[in-house]
Amino acid sequence: MDCTYTDFTQLYTTPFSLTSLFAVRQKWQNGVLFRRDSPRKSTGLIYLHRCNGQYTAADGTAFDAQPGSVVCLPAGSCYSVYNHDCAEEQDDAFLVEFNLHNAGKLLTFSDAPFLLDGSYGHRVAALLCEATNAFEAAVRSPVAVYAAVYTILSVLGKAAHGEENRRFRGILPAVRRLEQNDGGSVEELAAACGMSSGGFRRLFREYLGKSPVEYRTELRLARAQDMLENSDATLEYIAETLGYESAAYFCRVFKKNCHMTPTAYRIMRRA
C-alpha cells in the first residue's frame, strides 16, 4: 500500500484533507482474536471503554491496551488483537476511521498500531465518543462528526509539540474524578486541581470542549446507555447508581440529550 509517513508534529503544520470518515461503536467479546492480514485502507483511532486488547504487529512486537486507552491503527498496518478481561461479557469500543491526504498522497503515522499518550488520551477518548454518537444519531450531523475529528487531530498535533501536556495537566485530577463518577461540585473539582472556579471552568472547556457539568452528563449517559443495553436494571436503579436525584429527572436528562426515552433506547438497541 503506497503511503507517505508523517507524525503528529508534522501534521500540526502540514495542510491535509480529511476523507472517508466513518464511526462505529463496537461490541468486544472476551477471548476473541481478530487478525488483519491485509493492510488497513484507512487510519483508525479506537477508544477501549472497559476492554483489554493485546495488539501484536506484523513484526511480532506487542503491547497491551488497558481500559480507557486510545490506540492508533495506522493506514497500511497489519496486526492482530486479542480481546481479554473485559468488564462485561461484551463491552464497548469506540472506533473512528478516516483518510488523510496531502498533495494527492495518503498519509499514515506508522506501519504498526501504537498507544496514544495517556496525558491527553482523556480528551481524545471523549471526542471519539462524541464523533461516534454524532455519526450514529438518528439525524446524523456530518459537521459535528468532522469537527470532532479535526479537533482530535489538533489535540494530537499540539501534544506532539508539548503545548497540550503543559497547559492541561493541571485539570487531570478533575477529569479522573468525573470518569470515576466521583465528581463533586465544580467548586470541589476546582479545589482538587488547586485552581479558582472561574479559571478551572475556562481551562476545562478549552481542554474538552465542554463544561465540567456537560462532561459529567455525557459520562453518565454513556454509562446509562451501557446499563440499558446490557442489563435489566430498572430506571430507578440506574438513576441512583449514576447519582441522579430521581428516575423522573434521569429520564428528562436522557431524553433531552439522546432524543428518546431510556425505555425506547433499550428497545432499539436490543432489537
Instruction: List segments where confidence is low: pLDDT < 50 over at least 5 consecutive residues.
Output: none
Outline: globular
Succession of helices and strands: EHEEEEEEEEEEHHHHHHHHHH
Q: Main β-sheet, in a few words? A: 7 strands, mixed
List the helices and strands and how they pair.
Elements: E1 4-5, H1 8-13, E2 17-29, E3 32-36, E4 43-48, E5 52-57, E6 62-65, E7 70-73, E8 79-84, E9 90-102, E10 105-108, E11 114-115, H2 118-136, H3 142-160, H4 163-168, H5 172-179, H6 186-192, H7 197-208, H8 212-230, H9 235-242, H10 247-258, H11 262-270
Parallel strand pairs: 1-10
Antiparallel strand pairs: 2-9, 3-8, 4-7, 4-9, 5-6, 5-8, 7-11, 9-10
Helix pairs in contact: 2-3, 6-7, 8-9, 8-11, 9-10
Explain this structure:
- This protein is of the alpha+beta class.
- It folds into 2 domains: 4-161, Sandwich (Jelly Rolls); 165-270, Homeodomain-like (Arc Repressor Mutant, subunit A), CATH 1.10.10.
- Helix content is 46%, strand content 24%.
- It has helices at 8-13, 118-136, 142-160, 163-168, 172-179, 186-192, 197-208, 212-230, 235-242, 247-258, 262-270, and strands at 4-5, 17-29, 32-36, 43-48, 52-57, 62-65, 70-73, 79-84, 90-102, 105-108, 114-115.
- The strands form 2 sheets. Strands 1, 2, 4, 7, 9, 10 and 11 form a 7-stranded mixed β-sheet that branches. The protein has a 4-stranded antiparallel β-sheet with strand order 3-8-5-6, with no helix packed on it.
- The longest helix is centred in the middle third of the chain and has 19 residues, at 118-136.
- It is globular.
